[in-house]
Write a structure and sequence with these properties.
Strand content: 25-35%
Number of domains: 2
Shape: rod-shaped
Largest sheet: 6 strands, antiparallel
Distance between the termini: 97 Å
Order of helices and strands: EEEEEEHH
Number of strands: 6
Length: about 150
């Protein structure tokens, strides 16, 4: 699993550790890690303190891959923050999409109701046509029997 982490020096153990800040849940979905979670890097690992890194952890919690997060952060800035896409904008768009979905649902329900009404009217017209045919046939029979 991929994490965003920050390098810290553990003074007590005299070695560097990663503080996990966020976890990738899906391609464009990250979750902030609210509690402090650390992974020791070992005594042989010397890395700049406060550096942001992307770290891939195995299912057992061992580090599979680690890289500087600078390019990733710049990609986020370029892709989202230079175009004016903010969390508020995304929230507004999500609300607009929900309003459209609700509007379309209401329109679909109204269309279904109208379709049922038209079908009922068509059946009434057919019943009236049949009734008129029977009356005509009855009148023709009466005229023919009088002659």
């Amino acid at each position: 699993m991929l994490y965003l982490a920050q390098v810290h020096k553990n003074e007590f153990l005299n070695q560097y550790q990663l503080r996990l800040l966020a976890r990738q849940e899906a391609d464009y979905l990250w979750t902030i890690i609210p509690e402090e979670a650390f992974i020791l890097l070992g005594k042989s690992n010397t890395i700049s303190e406060k550096l942001l890194v992307l770290v891939k952890l195995s299912s057992t919690g061992s580090i599979e891959h680690m890289e500087d997060a600078c390019d990733w952060v710049l990609h986020l800035v370029q892709g989202y923050l230079t175009t004016g896409i903010s969390p508020e904008f995304l929230q507004q768009e999500a609300e607009r999409a929900e309003e459209w979905r609700q509007s379309l649902t209401l329109q679909n329900q109204d269309l279904a109701r109208r379709t049922l009404e038209l079908e009922a009217r068509r059946e009434q017209i057919q019943a009236l046509e049949e009734s008129l045919k029977r009356e005509r046939n009855g009148i023709h029979k009466d005229i023919n029997s009088d002659s």
